[in-house]
Amino acid sequence: MKTPLLFSIAFMTGLSLNAQSWSLTSAPQTETYTTGAASAAGTSLYVGSFNGIVRSIDNGLTWEVITVPGFVQDVDAANSDKLVCIATNVAYVSTDKGATWTNSGVNGSKAVVLDEQHVLVTDEISTQFYSNDFLTTSAASATAPRIVSGVLNGSMAILGSYGSSIYTSNDYGATFATTGYSGFGATTVTAIAKGQGNTYFSINSGGLHKSTDGGMTWAQVTTGLFGQHRDLISDANGNLYLMLSNKVYRSIDNGQSFQDVSVGLPIDGNYCNDLMITG
Length: 279
Known about the structure:
Layout: E1 5-10, E2 13-18, E3 21-24, E4 33-41, E5 44-49, E6 52-56, E7 64-66, E8 72-77, E9 83-87, E10 90-94, E11 102-107, E12 110-113, E13 119-122, E14 128-131, E15 139-140, E16 147-153, E17 156-161, E18 166-169, E19 177-178, E20 191-194, E21 200-204, E22 207-211, E23 219-221, E24 229-234, E25 240-244, E26 247-251, E27 259-260, E28 272-278
Antiparallel strand pairs: 1-2, 1-28, 2-3, 4-5, 5-6, 6-7, 8-9, 9-10, 10-11, 12-13, 13-14, 14-15, 16-17, 17-18, 18-19, 20-21, 21-22, 22-23, 24-25, 25-26, 26-27
């Protein structure tokens, strides 16, 4: 079975994890990377920087900086070819690995790509946009919950917001319903990941939360880990990777326990910001 590779963006450097040991990649060390602007699909990785998008299409072996029309605030990939980039508060679309870009006409600061057709764009203030054709067209949602993270559970989207709430949507962002996520502090739900079975996990800056009913109700998970919860992803088997400040932990038992897999990561106080997984 193919071994997945895990990538982290730390102190302007890319690192990869294979068999629990991190090693430095050839990603440019002179770039200033944008926190929260990193995405991977297939063998391709995309990371926002002050100068464009730093791209690898060969599992992180080689990297190049590709030009984007503006300062990159976010990037999210649907597959190896199709991605959305937010640059200077405008959503751009590429269908050729970032070689060319099309202005979608949608303004925003955060994009959540649910699949190869469905995209949400948030402007942080008053409008939530959704698209069912990868931003060829778009419309304003009925309400504006300011969505910043999300995954699909079948045809239902589970979505995290700036306002410390998790919503569901059965029409890919046209309308939203609240869930039993509350009382976990007024901080942004920065990431949602699928665990094993019908279990989903989410994080805000202070903690990890778990749903065992497909995202409808949530409870806080006591992990015994300390530090700011910065990112959370899962692999195809539902194994979790949780980033706390400058450490990364893995759970292979659906969040019951976590193993430190930080060997080789910088421990000099430089924060790791984002996790990506390929393979």
